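thought: fold this chain, then report.
action: predict
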Amino acid sequence: MKLLVLCLANPVKPFVQPQTMNSLFNLEWSQPFDLVIAREDTNQVPDLTGKLLSITAKANRGRDILLSGGYDAMLLVEADNILPPDTLKKLTKVDADICYGLYCQRPNRRHRWMMRIGEDIHVKEYPEKFMRQCWNKVVPSDGLGFGCTLIHRRVLEAIQFNCKAELGPDYHMAKAARAADFKQATDCSVHVGHIIGPHEAVWPDPERTFRIRKI
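observation:
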């Protein structure tokens, strides 16, 4: 499998968190893969619309690279996520057209799981029993977030990234994939960190939703 890893950099410094970059270089894969850092410079933090448009443009540049470069799949990574070394090994083995790693919402202090099941666009707070049942398993899902998302070529041949109505390209990609009968899943054994401060990150936890630890 020929893989493209696309990191969606922030428009302001630090463009990519050092811990994120370290995790990208520590990814385990038996063959060479190409790593692209998609970035642009600006003197100010964009508003919500500007941020969504920026992410969408970067994702579509990655899509163009994939389609023209003969890649089989693209792993999307955001600039503040920490991937486990075996991310590629696990996500590529899942029988799904789009496969998500498991990580937590960052801004909200409840740090809910970034996993959507059903049509509801909101991040849900799942009960402990459900989280324990999902833990370290692959579960069907309907997509949420680009913090750690593997998208196979067949999906990107059919769908491009877009954003509208203040909803990001992750939501619209997942919705379009569902409408096109592409299979989506979350691998809850791929535990992804989400940086929430200079020295802290939040990880998913099956007993209490999340845990915060120093980095």
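thought: worth noting. Residues 3-214 form a domain with the Spore Coat Polysaccharide Biosynthesis Protein SpsA; Chain A fold (CATH 3.90.550.40).
final: tokens above.
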